[in-house]
Design goal:
Layout: H1 13-26, H2 30-44, H3 56-71, H4 79-87
């Protein structure tokens, strides 16, 4: 291996902890995962994940989910109400 250099990335603490836990379960370190990512970028000459612009229906659902999270309240008070709304 040739000369190495550092790559510094800022992540939310929770995101980092969750990601590292998954990587550890797979048997990889964060450094291993970044190296693999870069190797895929080089091999494919593209971003190795499919990125899509969400359609209008998906964007509306995403906005609704964000609004629910911002309001910190459930849309349905009972599970039965949720099921009923799906039925009809």
């Amino acid at each position: 291996m040739g000369q190495t250099s550092m790559l510094h990335v800022r992540l939310d603490d929770d995101l980092k902890a969750q990601g590292n836990a998954v990587l550890e379960a797979i048997g990889l370190s964060a450094s291993d995962a970044v190296r693999l990512f870069y190797k895929r970028v080089i091999a494919e000459q593209a971003f190795p994940l499919e990125l899509k612009v969400p359609n209008a229906r998906t964007r509306a659902a995403m906005e609704e989910a964000h609004a629910i999270l911002r309001g910190r309240k459930a849309r349905f008070e009972r599970g039965e109400d949720l099921i009923s709304s799906l039925d009809g």
